[in-house]
Amino acid sequence: MRTNYRINSGVRFEMLSQDQLQTLFDGVLHVLENIGLEVHHDEARDILKKTGAWVEGNRVRIPQYLVKRSLEMAPRSFTIYARDGNSKHDIHIGPGRAHFGPGPTPPNFTDVETLERRPYVKDDARVVATVVDALPNIDFCESLGTVSDVHPDLAASYEFAEMFPNTSKPIVAWSYGWDDSEDIHKIAVAEAGGQEAFEKRPNYVHYCEPLSPLVSTFEAVDKLIFAARNRVPLIFTPCPLAGGTAPVTAAGIIIQAAAESWMGLTLAQAIQPGLPFFMGGVLSVMDMNAMILSYGAPELSLMMAGATELAHYAGIPLWQTGGCTDSKVLDEQAALEGSISCFFSALSGGDLCHDVGYTESGITGSILQTVMMDEAIGYSRRITRGIEVNEDTLATDAIHNVGPNGHYLYEEHTHRYYKTEFWYPNLCDRHNYEEWEEEGKKPMRDRVIERTRDILSSHKPSAIKPQTQTAIKEVLEAAESRVKNQQ
Amino acid sequence: MSEIYEQLATGILEGNVPKIPELVQKALDDGLKADDILSNGLVVGMNEVGVRFKSGAMFIPEVLKSAQAMHAGQEVLRQLLAESGSAFSGKIVLGTVKGDLHDIGKNLVGMLCEGAGFEVIDLGFNVEPEKFTEAIKNHQPDIVGMSALLTTTMRAMGYTIKAIEEAGLRDKVKVMVGGAPVDSDFAERIGADGYGHNAVSGSELAKKLIGAA
Questions:
Q1: What is the model's pTM?
Q2: Contact call for A361 and B180, based on CB within 8 A
Q3: B198 to A217: CB separation less than 8 angstroms, yes or no
Q4: Which has the closest alpha carbon to A100: A329, A445, A333, A384?
Q5: Claim to verify: residue B74 and residue B159 sit in the same structural domain
Q6: Given CA atoms B44, B50, B56, B62 in this order, what sign does their dihedral have?
Q7: B48, B83, B118 - which closes a domain
Q8: Structurally, how many domains does chain B consist of?
Q9: What tens digit of pLDDT does each residue of A156-192 get?
Q10: Which of A147, A175, A265, A387 has its CA 20 to 30 A from that of A216?
Q11: Whole-angstrom Cα distance, residue A200 to residue A461?
Q12: Any idea what the CATH number is for the domain that residue B21 is in?
């Protein structure tokens, strides 16, 4: 809450009081110290034991001091760099900075040409990356799918290989395990110019997801260890369902999810002190009738905001969720649900807000939804920029000049400010009826689709280095032999 | 006589776990047959639960309570049903596929299938394809049901069906799949016999597949 800044005041939004945050924080410590988690990874348990955790069988409990120490070690502010040196695409993580991007792994995709719902293919990763690269309010890239037209074990490797050349915005990568984590890392490191160069200017983030409730699965932990050893900024967050795999109440799911993240935090900091680390996840309700994880529920916004405040209270950044919907199509429901969660994430300052473009509760990825949400995010950002109050913005001089019954259009003051004071829509239409009719009476939906197709036909992302092209070819060839030999 | 059947059905609908075994015992004491108590009382109640759940009038926690009441009732009847030889309407092997530890949905399907008169063998979660084929050899089920919650573990369903084929067992069972990321297209692509989009439709599919078998 930086109300004492002269330059920019922002919007002060607080859902939880300091007392509530302290209680939640203590709740997480209680879960970690008294209940603990199952960690299904021998080496991880060894590392945790050596660093001070209490290990009995595969149950690991972490004493409070160790949790607090790990939180201290993890940075609050750091940068994830654009692969091509374009500083406009760098992501500066820190207080008051909210970023947005799509999400990973839906099995289906909404085809941009035919609008049909179909299985996701390799080329869709290129499509998503190209559009993400062009959108002004999308900061990082995820594929919005699971590649189905390659060997199933190589879906993550191929998707990264398709996205990386088509956007210079940082990618958040996911993988099945150690091998494809290595595939992805080799590509990123080739572009960075070597492992040392990568560690100074990391150009991607690694995503790992443990299991709720309270299980650190082998794959998630193995990938965490890979990321930590290679100094890749790390997200280690669960996807709990309130009432199903987490407590039904918001306070309960928040502390359980935090405990699940902080187990990973403790392990990561033990391996690589100071490793950039995100807590958070997808916290929402299990709809007790539809039996889905609801991506459009108001509780998503509520729980994510609570988790965001807890993360910032604890001193680390948060992996947020927003811009998503349970709707099956690009319609009013998608606009309503997606816009509110985007706005809430902007308001609470979610450091990296993902799943912008998730539809059908995460079963179908839609870059059209992302394009529509780009508008909602721009809109939200204008609001969260706040109101600047100073002598000049008070405008008493201008008010004096114009006087009663005048107008402000000629004022120098208006000319100085009107471009930056106001948000100008890219997609929302403000024409009068006749003009709108002349343009073809298009609803927002049509403009979203047109804009997406325009970007795809005209936008040229910056190129990757030739040595990275070679690296990609080599990595994929090696990956193909690897799976052949395993069969 | 129909009054006690109505009471049983209502007790199931209300999820009255303590009352059902009492009512079942009373029905037995009144001379009613175990088969009839099951089909005219308990099963009628569970069928109504399915109807109400589908229409949105009942929620999953309530369905689970009803399934628990059903189970309690079946426990009282188990010995008698086994003796009369009309124990089960079918046998189903269930499991969550390799790499996936989610099992709420699968457990729900299991409870509802038990309620529908199936013998349920639950292999648990993170089940390797080989364990599925082993279970088919050992138990000779009518149906094999696979569950996955993660988009990243769905592929194990395809691997499992392949393993069943390679073991020469594919024509011995019907395979059904379910879980949030699964849809009918996916089920078709991997060669499953059917797909249930939630626990209730999964147990209904099981009934259908038995009818067809």
A1: 0.91
A2: yes
A3: no
A4: A384
A5: no
A6: positive
A7: B83
A8: 2
A9: 999 999 999 999 999 999 999 999 999 999 999 999 9
A10: A147
A11: 24
A12: 1.10.1240.10
Whose tokens are 């300052």? That residue is: A349
- Answer yes or no: do B53 and B127 share one domain: no
Q: Number of residue pairs across A and B with CB atoms under 8 Å?
A: 50
Asked if residue A296 has pLDDT above 50, the reply is yes
Predicted confidence (pLDDT) per residue in A8-21, tens digit = 567 889 999 999 99
Q: Using CB atoms and an 8 Å cut-off, which of residues 39-78 of chain B contact chain A?
A: 53, 56, 59-61
What topology is assigned to A73-385 in CATH? TIM Barrel (3.20.20)
Taking the CA of residue A222 as centre, how many other CA atoms within 13 Å lie in the half-sphere pointing to its CB?
Answer: 15
Domain that holds residue B28: 2-83
**B57 and B6 belong to one structural domain:** yes
User: Which residues on A lie below 8 Å from B183 (Cβ)?
Assistant: 107-108, 363
| Whether residue B208 sits in one domain with residue B131 | yes
| Extended strands (E) in A47-131 | 54-56, 59-61, 78-80, 91-93, 99-100, 108-110, 117-119
Cβ burial, residue A69 (10 Å; 0-12/13-18/19+): middle
Q: What is the DSSP secondary-structure string of A438-483?
A: HTT---HHHHHHHHHHHHHHH--PPPPPHHHHHHHHHHHHHHHHHH
ipTM: 0.80
Residue of B nearest to A289 (CA): B59
CA distance B200 to chain A (A): 10
C-alpha distances out from residue B181 to A189, A399, A455, B132, Å: 33, 60, 30, 21
Based on the fold, state whether residues B133 and B201 are members of the same structural domain.
yes
Q: Of the candidates B83, B106, B141, which is a domain's last residue?
A: B83
